Amino acid sequence: MQEANELDSMCGISDDELTRRFKESIKIDQQIAKIKGAPIAKYDDEKHKAYLEYPDGRKDYV
Hints:
The protein has helices at 6-11, 15-36, and strands at residues 40-44, 49-53, 59-61. The chain has 62 residues and is of the alpha+beta class.
């Protein structure tokens, strides 16, 4: 059994639920940025580099 920390007892939301909500908020934020034409920051695991991905598919490594 997992122990509840102080934050869990204050807001009544489990760590797993907070993680799920956080991931969903990131997806929504990326969709909004894509619609607005703004680049999205991502990470390439193979090259071990961060990059900006533009709505047209272009990638600029930083």
